[in-house]
Write a structure and sequence with these properties.
Blueprint (H helix, E strand, L loop, with lengths): L18 H5 L8 E2 L2 E2 L1 E2 L10 H14 L9 H21 L7 E3 L3 H16 L5 E5 L8 H10 L2 E5 L9 H7 L4 E7 L11 H9 L5 E4 L11 H4 L3 E5 L10 E5 L1 H6 L10 E4 L4 E3 L13 H15 L3 H20 L4 E3 L9 E6 L4 H10 L2 E2 L1 E3 L4 H7 L4 E5 L6 H17 L2
Parallel strand pairs: 3-15, 5-6, 5-7, 7-8, 8-9
Antiparallel strand pairs: 1-2, 4-10, 9-10, 11-12, 13-14, 14-17, 16-17
Helix pairs in contact: 2-10, 3-10, 4-5, 11-14, 12-14
Length: 420
Amino acid sequence: MIATEKTIETKGAGAAWDVERVREDFPVLRQTVNGKPLVYLDNAASAQVPRIVIERGSKYLREEHSNIHRGVHYLSQRATSAYEGAREKVKRFINAREARECIFVRGVTEAVNLVMHGYGRKFVHEGDEVVVSEMEHHSNLVPWQMLCEEKGARLRVIPMDDAGELLLDEFDALLNERTKLVCVGHVSNALGTINPVKEIVARAHKLGVPVLVDGAQGAPHLKVDVQDLDCDFYAISGHKMFAPTGSGVLYGKAELLEKMNPFLGGGSMIRTVTFERSTYAAIPDKFEAGTPAIASQIGLGAAIDYLNGLDRAAALAHEQELLAYATERVSAIEGIRIIGNAREKASVLAFVIDEIHPHDVGTILDREGIAIRAGHHCAQPVMQHFGVPATARASFAFYNTREEADSLVAAVQKVIEVFG
């Protein structure tokens, strides 16, 4: 539920969330754009990176740069230790049972494609069904369309209502003996809806159907416990949770990962190779062919260290209060329609203005130093549901402020004035 409290207390400290202190950790926020202070409200696309993550990546490149796993020399050993240390941090962060269940990938897109190729192409056959939701990002939709076209399978869709909430009774009606996989987002990037993924997993598991959760928008804001969710796969993009681009994780239950085929073939993912056949390494190596994005994944580990150093409950409460405040103020502007009014939301405020294209909104806001996202947000079926070509989307992080929300409101009013 979007919080309405005006004072966010820090756990055990009794002090309000110190947003100004947190902002000091993010150098990019101190710059100006078009002569005005940067107001960064595009966090759902990529969150900014704190200083300690930048410094950790620089340390690797300055002092540890080497390939990992295969080298016996000093630098390779240091790099390997840092890289595998990041995997251990991921394991604890999402409460996986074992570090080997955490596969390093470039982000959610690669994670979903890994599951599609490694699990889907092996276990989905003609006449089978894959279930997705109406609010999925293209990265958790297009791969399943490709699979169904290849296999002669059927893609089924969980519908949503006009508030942007999934209709779980309709979901129950979709599940049957032909269902081989359910794929659903934890938090909608286009609407901000927090989906009841634990309930979705439980309903699917009654029929023995595994569930993949797209956690791109969940992991940056919510406490993720994959054992509590009991999901079979959980995908994370590092660049949305204050880490470098090119970092990410696919969590998968070990028993499923072990049954899956490799996604990519090459070095590091093999046990033996002859011209007749190859045998594959154990997980996670089986899914990590070639030289990985070492600096980026070490940076992901540093981002997890940073998040663990915060009071995440207070950070979320600050984000929720800010979202509620901004939603109330933007909703009060005549001619604006909010897209997505689910009871449980995180981070995202998407809207349209009568007779003004969202790209024009984004352009004028940029002149005011305000960064938002304008477009279909890689979620065209969502746009089709609400009958709009695109939306303007402001998305918040724990370093955003009420003053920045006020700047957003003032700039939107200016857009309306400009277009009469």
